[in-house]
Specification:
Layout: H1 3-23, H2 101-113, H3 121-131, H4 136-149, H5 154-167
Length: about 180
C-alpha cells in the first residue's frame, strides 16, 4: 500500500471509532466514563405528634351583691330658660344670579385670559356695565358661580375678579372667599 492509501485508511478508522461511540446505545463498555452512582432512597418525613388539648376549666360566676333600692330624689323646681339673643339675620345669597349669565361668562373668560397680564381697559369696559345694579356681595357671588361653572382655576382668577369689582365701584366684604 502506498502512503496515500494508508492515510485514508487511518482517517476512515478514526471516523468509524468516533461514529461508534456516538451510536452506541449504552456506555457500559466505556473506559473513560465515570461509574454510575445510585442515589440513596428518600427518607420518609413523619409529621410531629399532635398535642392533646387540655380539658376546659369550669368558670364559676362571681357572687352577685345584694341590691338595695334607693328612692328617687325629690323633684327640684324648673329653672326658667332664657332664650339666647337672636343674631341679626344676614341677607341670604341669591338662589340665582340676577346678572346676565352670558355677559358675565364672557367677562370671566376675559379675566381667565389675563392671569399673567392684569385687569385692563377692555375688561373694565365690558364687565363694569354687566355688574351695575346689584349689591357688591351679589356681584362677588355671581362671579364665583360663573368662575366655577367655566372650570377656571378659582384660586388664580378670583383675585382678578375681586380687583375688577373694586375698579367697577363695588366693595366686596374683606377676606371674601367663594362659598
Amino acid at each position: 500500500m502506498d502512503q496515500h492509501s494508508r492515510t485514508l485508511a487511518a482517517i476512515f478508522l478514526i471516523a468509524m471509532v468516533q461514529l461508534a461511540t456516538i451510536v452506541t446505545p449504552t456506555m457500559a463498555n466505556c473506559l473513560y466514563c465515570p461509574p454510575e452512582t445510585k442515589s440513596p432512597p428518600p427518607t420518609p418525613i413523619t409529621p410531629p405528634p399532635t398535642p392533646t388539648p387540655a380539658p376546659p376549666t369550669p368558670i364559676t360566676p362571681p357572687p352577685t351583691p345584694p341590691t338595695t333600692i334607693t328612692p328617687p330624689p325629690a323633684p327640684t323646681p324648673p329653672t326658667p330658660i332664657t332664650p339666647p339673643p337672636t343674631p341679626t339675620p344676614m341677607a341670604p345669597p341669591p338662589a340665582t344670579c340676577p346678572l346676565d349669565a352670558l355677559k358675565l361668562g364672557a367677562c370671566v373668560d376675559l379675566l381667565g385670559g389675563l392671569v399673567h397680564v392684569g385687569v385692563g381697559d377692555s375688561v373694565v369696559n365690558q364687565c363694569c356695565p354687566v355688574l351695575q345694579g346689584v349689591l357688591s356681595l351679589e356681584a362677588a357671588l355671581c362671579l364665583c358661580t360663573t368662575i366655577k361653572a367655566s372650570v377656571l382655576n378659582l384660586n388664580v382668577v378670583l383675585p382678578l375678579a375681586l380687583e375688577l369689582l373694586v375698579i367697577c365701584g363695588k366693595t366686596p366684604p374683606s377676606g371674601f372667599t367663594c362659598p
